[in-house]
Amino acid sequence: MSSQYKYWKPFVGPFDPCKPIRVKSYSTPPQLYITFQPVGLQQFETPHQALMHGTLWPQLYSPYPDPIKGGTSSA
């Protein structure tokens, strides 16, 4: 499986008035990497865990924050 987080380096002009952001990121949902639902896909142990993660299957869970940014997502 590929990483859910993608990074790129935008162009930074010499006369930009704002402080440059050297690396930007975005996340892709895990269902893009699973072509079909396999038989016997692992499920969360309890309904409470599934509700807290927003999905029945741990392989489809995707946290929003970027781990490189220390818990904040970038848009």
Provide an overview of this structure.
The protein is low in regular secondary structure. The protein has a domain at 1-10 and 22-28 and 42-64. 9% of the residues lie in helices and 11% in strands. Strands 1-2 form a two-stranded antiparallel ribbon.
Write the layout of secondary structure elements.
Layout: E1 5-8, E2 24-27, H1 47-53
Antiparallel strand pairs: 1-2
What can be said about the biggest beta sheet? 2 strands, antiparallel
End-to-end Cα distance, whole Å, is 23 Å
Backbone structural class: little secondary structure
| Count of alpha/pi helices | 1
Return residue spans where pLDDT drops below 50 for at least 5 consecutive residues: none
Radius of gyration: 17 Å
Order of helices and strands: EEH
Biggest sheet strand order reads 1-2
Percent helix, as a range, is under 10%
**Total beta strands:** 2
What is the average of the pLDDT values?
82
Q: Assign an overall shape.
A: elongated
| Strand content range | 5-15%
What are the defining features of this structure?
9% helix; single chain; 1 helix; two-stranded antiparallel ribbon; little secondary structure; 75 residues
